Amino acid sequence: MRVAKLGGSVASRLSGILDELKAGGDVLIVPGGWIFADSVRELDEQRRLPPSAAHWMCIAGMEMYAHYISSFGVNAVEDLKEEEIKGLCVLLPYKTLRLADELPHSWDVTSDSIAVWVASKLGVEEVIKITNVDGVYVDGEFVERVEASALIGKKTCVDSFAPKLMVETGIDMFVCNGLVEGRVKNYILGGRAKGTLIEGK
């Protein structure tokens, strides 16, 4: 089984990315927050929402994006049960996260961290982060491989809590540009594509 974080930044090529993910067998998509989380961030800037309110509103936004993804013929699942994850599925995350509530209620935690957390619960060793950039840049330079511990405290395309969680759980993350046709499929089938492997182990 694979876990793929699918960002809203690649929604313009969603159909093609989903076709590529189907090559991966059993894949659980963790949706990003897309325009829905952006609207929460804007409201927070205007009204200074309580952190917990903003947290749950953003996760509700992830659920909205999940329903949009499911409209492309992807099976939506609410629970982290391996027997339900067959073929390509998308997680409706609100129920699972509300019941567990193990992550900080902070803007440091986005769907990146949630995808790592989901992978840890399923015993999956790697998350594929599908986004609109080629990978991670450290001090302005693109890197093909980097330890998660080296990213703690640095601003990158990955949220600031995810590297800490990757170190704690030993989970890796491969950052892949989903706007470039074939990269997701190449990585799934061949284990190689342009991108950055962040090593949690």
Task: Give a quick set of tags describing it.
alpha/beta, Carbamate kinase, eight-stranded mixed beta sheet, two-stranded antiparallel sheet
Give a written overview of the molecule.
- The protein has seven helices and ten strands.
- With 201 residues, the chain is of the alpha/beta class.
- The strands form two sheets. An eight-stranded mixed sheet has the order 3-4-2-1-5-9-10-8. The protein has a two-stranded antiparallel sheet with strand order 6-7.
- The longest helix is centred in the N-terminal third of the chain and has 20 residues, at 51-70.
- The mean pLDDT is 97.
Average pLDDT metric: 97
- CATH architecture title: 3-Layer(aba) Sandwich
Coarse structural class:
alpha/beta
Helix content: 25-40%
